[in-house]
User: What shape does this take?
Amino acid sequence: MMTTRNLRPMLLAGLLLLGMLATLSAQAESGWLVAFERQQVTPVNRADTERLIEVGVLDTDGFSEMVLSLGGEFKEAVPGKGRVGALLVPDVDAFNFLMRNEGKILFPLEVQAHANGGDAIFVSEQMTVRIAFPRYRVYLYNETSSGAVASLYAYRVR
Assistant: This one.
């Protein structure tokens, strides 16, 4: 039998869920911030275009600039040197073909974070870039000796 005492936690949980859904809905409607969070990034050199880790597509149509931020942590040993980065490559069939088959990266936007020897956390400088294409494919690389988990944030501006 349900009593008022038993209903209270369920009611509070329901209200909390409605509040979270309203917040998520408002974020989706604004469309300004896009996050590629907690992506596993094994060691792979930036120049090894066949092995870059693709994490999604970023729609930039209607936006003129964006601020890129990259951060994360090393999951294995803390490397002494190296960098973790994100490449945003225009989503154009010819560019994708050249990147995967010829190793040529055309018109990329890029943000990097450097391992600073002894710190498991890495964070890039925020970078503002001009947008020239309506969509970008997002790739991650890790030029250190340790696996990492990285998050890329793109705040788009009209």
User: Anything to note?
Assistant: Residues 31-157 form a domain with the Jelly Rolls fold (CATH 2.60.120.660). The longest strand covers residues 65-74. The longest helix spans residues 4-30. The beta strands are 33-41, 53-59, 65-74, 83-90, 109-114, 121-123, 127-130, 135-142, 148-157.
